[in-house]
Amino acid sequence: MRKSIIKLENVWKTYTMGNVEVNALQGLNLEVKEGEFLAIMGPSGSGKSTAVNMIGCLDVPTKGRILLDAHDISKLGESELAQIRGRKIGFIFQQFNLIPTLTALENVALPIVFQSVDRETRRKRSTELLEIVELGDRMEHKPTELSGGQQQRVAIARALANNPEVILADEPTGNLDSSTGETVMSFLQKLNRKEGKTIILVTHDKNVATHADRIEFLKDGKIIKSLNRKGG
Amino acid sequence: MLKDYFIYSVRNLKNRGLRSWLTMIGIFIGIAAVVSLIGLGEGLRITVMSQFGFLGPDVLGVQASGLAFAGPPGTGVVEPLSDEIADKIRKVNGVEASFNRYIESVTVEFNDRQEIGISGSVPEGKNRKIFEAMVNLKAEEGRLLKDSDTKKVVLGNNFKDNDDFGKGIRVGDKVQINGIDFEAVGILEKKGSFIFDNVVLMNERTMFDVIGVKKEEVDVVAVKVDNINNVNQVKKNIDKLLRKERDVKEGEENFQVQSPQQTLEALNSTLFAVQLFVYIIAAISLAVGGIGIMNNMYTSVLERTKEIGVMKSIGAKNSAIFTIFFVESGLLGMVGGIIGIILGMIFAFGLSAAGRVFLGSELIQASVSLFLIFGALLFSFTLGTAFGLLPAYQASKLNPVDSLRSVK
User: Cys-Cys link to B387, which of A82, A129, B55, B293 (CB 3.0-4.6 A)?
Assistant: First the structure.
């Protein structure tokens, strides 16, 4: 049996907006196993983004526990969370979110810089990754000199920089046309199948979600339906 | 890692191009003001020191003052010192030696060209050695004067390559002083003192007999005090004696008893007042510059909120974000400082060159020491970081979720 890599146990997140308290997550339970390709779907306001923040260790819950590799991270400080994020989770954003002043190669190397790895190792690793996403000839280009699809592939390479166990992709095709989006998805699928990476995909697009093995439907901060496409 | 943050910071500053330069204006005006004025002030101090510096701290100069017309020190006053008074000064308690100095404007003619020069007397007998030691007199070419010399002069170093005569005067050359033939027997070593480098030295007796200076009208009495600790007491004694002899009340003296040290102190306090004024202006400029840096950094934090969120999401700790912004503000300060130092040096050395060319004076000198350069550099970097501290702290404390949601 595959080990559990992320586990959310009765997670609540409450935001205070003025005098009103809003429960973005209301007792969310979710378990992701190693090597899984999971899609989280839901309409806007369903708590998708908040769930992503919790899974990605960007935020801590108001109540409940989050276990990453069986370690409770819900009480950790910001800098410890940052280190865990850097090592264990690779982020892919809808807006690509590359650093505009850095070249593709430097963008890919940035997460490794934050882990204090030496320059030579960084360079080698970043070059390899850019070659994997077929951008070996665009390494010295700045993000503005790349197309949307190319930028997202740089972002994928960046997400892989520290060889994390989990790739967290938040609407990765949201800003791309369908064929480019398809290319990006096939990259992610390849990462899951060939490299055994755990992939958590957040989307509202059914076609995109079909690449996943399992789809969890979120509404009002809770899972309302699960669909196991592998039939497990 | 710091190197990577440094590169990243430089990129960001370059990216903000014009805004970065505008931010640095305050810094470089302030630093330029500090560097140029300290440089010029220090140069002036060195120049003045070299004018007086050859005189020891145990030397006093006594001269008549009052209604003085233009001319060498002690000359042209209504009531000059008499040689009788000079004799009495010699007997004042604590005076080891004293001798009279006569200073006279003369015409110097050489190579069919005439210039006005200042001749100074050299005392004779045992006082000659004391005088030579007192002002550290050495001949670069030829020799110094001897008691037996008449119609012989020793010239200041500037005569050696003075263009005013068409060619320099050499040892053995004939020069005419006040129309009388003299022989130059020596050229003095360069002193860096305007007076000594342009002086025409001749024996005291020559001055009376050939030039016609009156023995009774002493221009300066040079006094060597027996013990350096007694300088003030001896000065008081001489003051008292002269008040009595010249029949003047305290506070109405028509004479001066000055030590080189006092002159330097007076100069230093004047310089300090000028420098203080400039420091205040520079401090205001630097404060404005610093606030400019702070403003720039706050704007930058706002503009790059999303970037900060992204960096945090890919593993940047708070300390890393802090360092990036901290280095950036320090760099703004330091680059501003470098430009300020260069501008300040250009200004200071330009002014001293202009002084040489247009005024023919060596008095405006610039002296920019390595200490000043590195001090200014360190200061501007510190200033940048100090004003960047709060923005950098704010950046480091941003919540990654909120930052990522930021539109920019």
Answer: B293
Among residues B199, B226, B257, the one where a domain terminates is: B257
Same domain, B219 and B113: yes
Are B87 and B197 in the same domain?
yes
Question: Which sign, positive or negative, has the C-alpha torsion B165, B167, B170, B174?
Answer: negative
Q: Which of A58, A83, A115 sits opposite B401 (nearest CB)?
A: A58
What CA–CA distance (Å, rounded) separates A120 from A125? 9
Q: Where in the sequence is the domain holding B188, given as residue range(s)?
A: 59-257
Q: Are residues B128 and B11 part of one domain?
A: no
Using CB atoms within 10 Å of the CB of residue A205, give its burial: 0 to 12 exposed, 13 to 18 middle, 19+ buried. middle
Residue B297 has pLDDT above 50, yes or no: yes
Contacts of B15 in chain A (CB under 8 A): 100-101
Cβ distance B314 to A158 less than 8 Å, yes or no, reads yes
Torsion of CA B90, B91, B94, B95, to 10 degrees: 10
Distance CA(A87)–CA(A161), nearest Å, equals 9
Average pLDDT over residues B316-330: 91
Nearest CB to A101; choose among B1, B15, B311: B15
In terms of domains, do B20 and B105 share one?
A: no
Domain count of the fold of chain B:
2
Mean pLDDT of A107-132: 90
For residue B16, which residues of chain A lie inside 8 Å, CB to CB? none
pLDDT in tens, B264-277: 777 778 778 877 88
**Do the beta carbons of residue B408 and residue B306 sit within 8 Å?**
yes
Element (H, E) at B29: helix B17-52
Q: Which of B4, B306, B317 sits opposite A82 (nearest CB)?
A: B317
Q: To probe the interface with A, which of B10, B314, B402 has the most A CB atoms within 10 Å? A: B314
Confidence (pLDDT) at A184: 85
The whole-model pTM stands at 0.72
Among residues B231, B257, B283, which one ends one of the domains?
A: B257
Interface test with B, best of A113, A115, A166, A171 (most B CBs within 10 A): A113
Are B66 and B256 spatial neighbours (Cβ–Cβ below 8 Å)? no
- pLDDT range class, residue B68, cuts 50, 70, 90: very low
Residues of chain A found within 8 Å of residue B310, distances taken between Cβ atoms: 93, 97, 99
> So what's the pLDDT on residue B52?
60
* Candidates A85, A101, A113; nearest CB to B313: A85
pLDDT for B34: 85
Chain B residues 275-334 within an 8 A CB cutoff of chain A: 306-307, 310-320
Phi, psi at A24, each rounded to 5°: -75, -35
Mean pLDDT of B208-235: 82
**Does residue B25 sit in the same domain as residue B84?**
no
Domains of chain A: 36-58+77-228 (3.40.50.300)
